[in-house]
Write a structure and sequence with these properties.
His-Me finger endonuclease fold; 2 domains; about 45% helix
Length: about 130
């Protein structure tokens, strides 16, 4: 295949597959990477915001505005421990892995704990009983 940017003929595997169509991009991976880095360096804050918005939409089905509404409704703190995030500036989006419904925003530690308990209420109750000395 010929890259539209560099004009070089390269093997097909050097061109990414477009997810929604299954077709290959017309720009090779190397040129695509250079273009992304150039856009990123021109506007690092805007790039980060767009990246975050894309992640929120693709992974959780919510917009940045919906995230902000959750953040505001929780006062910018974790829904479980009521503390601000300490590992980074964003709280994690907690969601049900079966229904994919968003439950709230959690700090890294609370989100990890729930994940390690595999959202299993019986295990969490058992841990509570254990911590209470029962």
């Amino acid at each position: 295949m010929n890259c539209r940017v560099c004009g070089l003929t390269k093997p097909e595997d050097r061109f990414e597959i477009i997810k929604h169509s299954g077709n290959r991009r017309k720009i090779c991976r190397e040129c695509t990477r250079e273009q992304r880095l150039a856009r990123r360096s021109k506007d690092p804050e805007g790039w980060q915001q767009r990246r975050r918005a894309t992640l929120l939409k693709s992974k959780y089905g919510i917009s940045h505005e919906q995230y902000k509404q959750l953040w505001d409704s929780q006062g910018g703190v974790c829904k479980i421990c009521k503390r601000e995030e300490t590992k980074g500036k964003w709280l994690s989006v907690d969601h049900c892995h079966n229904s994919l419904a968003v439950r709230g925003l959690l700090c890294h530690n609370c989100n990890s704990a729930i994940g390690l308990f595999e959202d299993n209420i019986d295990r969490l109750l058992s841990a509570i009983e254990y911590l209470g000395g029962g």
